[in-house]
Amino acid sequence: MTLLVIGLGNPGSKYHGTRHNTGFDVVDKLASKFGVKFSKPFFKKYFITHITYNSNKFILVKPTTYMNRSGEVLPSLLSKYKLTNSSVVIVVDNLDIEKGLLKFKLKGSDGGHNGLKSINDYLGSNEYKRLFVGIGRPPKGESITEYVLSPIEDNEVLEAEDRAVEGLLRLTSDSISQVMNYINRRKIDK
Fold first, then answer.
1. What is the pLDDT of residues 68-109, one digit of tens each?
2. Is 53 one of the annotated binding-site residues?
3. Annotated site (Stabilizes the basic form of H active site to accept a proton), which positions (predicted)?
4. What is the pTM for the complete model shown?
5. Where are the domains of the chain?
6. Alpha-carbon separation of residue 78 from 2, 122, 123, 127 (angstroms)
7. N or C: which end of the chain has fewer CB within 10 A?
8. Would the annotation count 126 as a binding residue?
9. Active site residue 16
């Protein structure tokens, strides 16, 4: 099995470590776990690296487009690796999921998320795997834009990113329902 795992975020150091870049953080953590580094192919709008786990291949991608243009990288990647939408896994932040929780879905609407809207537009479908990292809603009175573009200061979100990595790896050995049960469970209090 080959999985094209695309973490969504905004490029540049200004956005590094922000809530809106949890998708980048998850694929970074997955790459780090296997000791691989990302590289940027000439004339391409993404950073990419590869890992093999349980005889399965993960193609990890971080688009260099801004969030609302994330889907631009898909046509060339799907063509290059001869993949279909069923091989795509998008990792993305979600305001409507409580901090520290994860949600795995096989299809669905963009939910107002500009990154997913772009993915849907370029795939021509909303049927692809998504792994949501809950970042919760901002405190009353704080703008959503300021909130999502501010640094992650919540241990729950950082721990959820670690669980997201484990969930992605389980895609190689567990059934989809087992993966969904693992990822979608409520966090365990310490």
1. 899 999 999 999 999 999 999 999 999 889 888 999 999 888
2. no
3. 93
4. 0.91
5. 2-184
6. 11, 11, 10, 15
7. C
8. no
9. no
